[in-house]
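Recap quiz, item 2
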Amino acid sequence: MDLGQIPVLGLVFQLIGYLVDVLPTISPIILRAATPIALAALVGVLCERSGVVNIGIEGIMLGTAFIGWVVGVALVPILGGEPTAIFGLTPALLGGLAAALVGGMVISFVLAWLAISVRADQIISGTIINIAAVGLTGYLISLLSKSSPVGAGNFKPFVPPAGLTDLPVVGWVFAMFLEQGPITMSVIVIVVVMQILLFRSRWGLRTRAVGEHPKAAETVGISVIALRYRNVVLSGLLGGLAGASLTMEATNSFQNNMTAGRGFIGLAAMIVGRWTPLGAFGAALLFASSQAIGRSISFAPPKGQLGDILTSVPPQFYDALPYLVTIIVLAGLIGRSTPPAADGQPYEREGIH
Amino acid sequence: MTGAATPAAPPERPWTGVGTALVVPLVSILLALVVGAVVIELSQLLTPGKGFNVWLPIEAYRAMLEGSLGSWNNIVNTLVVSTPLVLGGLSVAFGFKGGLFNIGAQGQFLMGVLGAVMVGVALRDTTPVIAIPGALIGGVVGGAIWGFIPGVLKAVSGAHEVVVTIMLNYVALSVLAAAVNGPLRVQAAPSAVTLTVGDAALPILFGRNGHTGIIIALIAVAIVGWLLYRTTFGFEVRTVGANPDAARYAGMRPRRIIVLTMSMCGMLAGLAGAIELLGITHKTTASYATSVGFDSIAVALLGRSSPIGVLLSALLFGLMRAGAGQMQIQTGIPSELVDVLQATVLFFLVANVVVKRLLVRRSRTGDTPNARPPDRYVNEAVTG
């Protein structure tokens, strides 16, 4: 194809037209895909704002995805019960969710112990969590799958009134935020609450102080160690929610390695969002959009010249799109995103040893 | 990475001398085997109806040893399985020496597979003297590109190599799938697969599958050791890894070194992929199964980033991987147990306070074991 003969401007208009066309359809999918990424990014924000690098998010997600699913499976025959009309809640599903949240905190505690008390290299500590999660879940799923367990199902999306989603122009926005399961819906709330807490509350101020200048924080009476522990363990709740969203909302089963790098994309979203909850959420939406648009192009390519070009690209390109976008956005932020000053540095109180 | 120089070491305790260089890893391995046994016992409770066998862990470990060392062919196979771990471990270790964490060995390995199969298929009807070096170089170049990209991004824009290399692992999957589904595909075949590499296949030297790659991996150990400790380049890599600012004041160019270091990481992992393809599979489908990525990290950490250490720990993990199949067949324990063992070894290695406390209780009394920041060892493990 001779590139010189293609009217570039025309193609751009065709692309915009296509996006405007498909956006209402894929917008709920984008938010759904952004959910685990955004939650992972919030885990990162919470930890790194207080000075602990958490690269084990991927493992925490994978581990809790498994725990939530397996506890759900175990509870189904015991608790039974009909799913509720809204969100399809069952006792077993809620039990699984609770287990995922607790599991997230337990795994995070291990990471906190390695990073804060042992003062081990934090990136290696996180990597150990990741390797252990892949190994243990792979080991257990391979044992359990022999008895072909019955899943606990999953949370169902809310069905908003048709009058709302059919509204012209703005209807798709309602669809995007309301046609969702409980975890996806809660993400926006969590993001806003965290943004306010981090920048407007006493806890937020202390957290940021500990992440920027722990020695100064200690001199005004903040316990650096205790705050770091608390934040990392609390971040496990969000990690558990992210894991639960994979096996209890997006799907109803567990697959080996099903996190597929989402934890790391979440870390990238945190960096791109400059360590703020709102920014990280925006970046997560961007990465999720690249995934959804890639899917959309391979399933329903646009017509005309643009479609010819897009379909001549190998379909695998669209699988790789979110990862490529992550790299490009990350590399494009030359010197414009600075981590908290004490990020990743173990803290040692003076005068103890 | 922790590029900062470690503070001056305190007076050595008896157990932190040369001996512990080996003692801590050995105790970590031992503790991991104990934890593995506990996992096996506990998991028996998950599969009721089969009865409870107290000796199952012993039987599992014995089957694993039999599968890896039970016969000449099994021993040779263990060496074959260890070969990519040696090269992958060297790749991660070389990064550690330069202060970089290369989690991208997986992707670099896959690009090595791709490079080797492209050149290998093109040269399949020439002669081994041309085809083998050509295909190996193809793999090395493929891996080098996948190491060069995160190196440049790190040097130019500061993009963290951990995130970029992980992302590139997934991109490599897609690139390999696109190539095998596209230009490399054998049209007549029912599913996407490449031609075999023909003359580029590595000759079998001993046993059932002992290919030349084993020798190449040993040579690579020697070359990397020489490069790191006997050349100016190696000195610069280690200096940048220990303290980039000091390196800059000494007139080195850290950015250039970072790009070169990451490219070198890529070359080593790419060579691993090339050897795996040319020595074992000879062709590839759209996906290439390997666990070399995480394995390499474990190998490099356990080997404390020294080439000899990498060789030894690659043999250990290779032994586990090679014997895992036999263990699964004989005792029904999933082969993923190896991943659990690997993670546990690393855990005890990093949380070496636990190990040292054990040792201290045994050898000394009345001394608090954790008088120094225990990350000293970890930093050594990482930056050497």
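DSSP finds 14 helices and no strands in chain A.
Chain A touches chain B through 53 residues (CB under 8 Å).
End of item.
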